[in-house]
Amino acid sequence: xxxxxxxxxxxxxAKEVTAENQETPTQEVPATEPVKEVxxxxxxxxxxxxxxxxxxAAEPVKxxxxxxxxxxxxxxxxxxxxxxxxxAHDDYDWDLGARNTLTYxxxxxxDFERQYSETLTTVAENEIVSGRVSAIAGxxxxxxxxxxxxxxxxxxxxxxxxDLKVGDYVDVYVEEQEDKNGQLSLSRRKAKILxxxxxxxxxxxxxxxxxxxxxxxxxxxxxxxxGGLETFxxxxxxxxxxxxxxxxxxxxxxxxxxxxxxxxxxxxVVSHKALIESDLEDQRQAxxxxxxxxxxxxxxxxxxxxxxxxxxxxxxxxxxxxTDISWGxxxxxxxxxxxxxxxxxxxxxxxxNKKRISLGLKQLQPHPWEVLSAELAEKSVVxxxxxxxxxxxxxxxxxxxxEGLIHVSEISWSNQPVNAREFFKLNQNYEAKIVxxxxxxxxxxxxxxxxxxxxxxxxxxxxPQGSRHKGDVKNLTPYGVFVxxxxxxxxxxxxxxxxxxxxxxxxxxxxxxxxxIDVVILDIDKDSRKLSLGxxxxxxxxxxxxxxxxxxxxxxEATILRRDDRGxxxxxxxxxxxxxxxxxxxxxxxxxxxxxxxLYFKVIEFNRDDKRILVSHSRYLDDQFRETKEKERKExxxxxxxxxxxxxxxxxxxERETLGNLAIFSQLxxxxxxxxxxxxxxxxxxxxxxxxxxxxxxxxxEPxxxxxxxEPxEEAPAKDAKASxxxx
Length: 728
Known about the structure:
Oligomer: single chain
Helix content: 25-40%
Structural class: alpha+beta
Shape: elongated
Distance between the termini: 145 Å
Number of helices: 12
């Protein structure tokens, strides 16, 4: 015998010994407290010895089988128990206990175990079993599932069985064979959920119908209890017609088809609409097979949308487009139709493959153009409301189905462009004159302006050229201002005719829409219905006098209004604007002038015809520099001239002094001569005279020499002035 078989036999023998020893203390004996204590002690010792014997029996023995070893060990244990019992000193009859201790063979133990096992049911965890209610007490229910222990459940799990009683059989879910307390753990709720999920899976796979109860409303639909499992019923799957009031279905029990399941989270989606559609499919096929174009049917309005209405034709749906509801224009089908309204419609078209049916309501009545009154003709005046607006005009509905076009050119006598979307409003009533009418083509053109006389027929008399008027600004463009003088008559003031002195990049810098402005009629083009207007012509042309005020080369103080990369606009006195190229607005420090800076400018160009003035600040600075230099030069020259005058004056003074001295000398000479003539003879008189003459000449030359010596000294400042002038 190999080790594996031996170990198996040893295990079976150990089980038999254990079972036998466990049964021994259960024999009926007199129950006294001392005896019970003794029996318990004996039982513990028997168990310990049994384990020891089993361990010994588990060792391989060549001469005996495992069963024989176990039998011998059992006999030894019995003998030891008898000896221990005999040694006890009490009133218990140990012979009776010995007599109740039975000895069984291994085959008998195996047979007993087999018979006991047959009485029990094999139970596995996480499965559903059927149990019998064995007791109901204290809010609990005891279930016998034919297992070694009973299960205990709360009575609240059986609320769906109000008349539960002992002996009833119910399905439960085995959670654990033994929990931490060694008890069998069962669940009625999980059993119901698992049963329900199995039923839902089978229904989904086989396409069968299930029954459920709507228990509550949720976002987008309802919650349905299907056999204990909560499922979702979308709002679109409640019925074939749209449902608004979900609360009306709460508490109802209905039939459903399972349309979708999620195995992972055990969730399902059900549909009641699918059952209805399947029932109506046969009816739909029969109805479609019998349809014919032009056939009149009765339908029930089941849904209204922006583009039309869906009608139930008795099992099949048809679409009534908004354009086929009425001969007149309507903005929404709800203006004529209501939900659940029964109406007669005509079949316009249908598609067998796509199962689409197009219906018509207005086709049941004659076309309005066919019954249009014969009194309506050209030049007739009609009333109606605006039902449609386009860029090219608006449609005026005279009666439902009969419309006429008011083109933008027939709105006003004025040539000013009219925006139809701004001029007309939907559902606004107008009176118009019929210009053309074509009954065969069902077309009509209308006019608003022809209701009044053409004001251009007498334009020259009412608005002669050169006359002054007031008008309202109606529109602004980059090139001018449109001014309306009266209804249908207006003209344009070009941007250059707004001001004599200012230049505008856009008319909005000068005026705005809605303001009143004075204008002068400049020109009339009756054929083209155009007026040329002017605003600056209200005043005289100041350029006739500006040429004298701002001549070329004149200097003026001006303010920088605007500046860009090319130049700057400056404002001169009298509000006149001039232009300065960028290089001409450079200041003395080399920087360009900023906006609102006040500087002096020089007029470098004046064009009366183009009304243009060019100015320069840099030229002004150059002129100022030259004027300063010229002034300094003149001051130096004046100093030089003054010096010359002083020198010349001093020369004259010296000459006069010299001449005076000569006169005095002459007088002295004559006096000396007179004195000498009285004292000496004639010869002596001559000699002194000659000598006196030499002295006189010497004296006469002496002042001249002094004058010559002093003259260079007087000329020195002049020479210095000349030198300084050359240096400058």
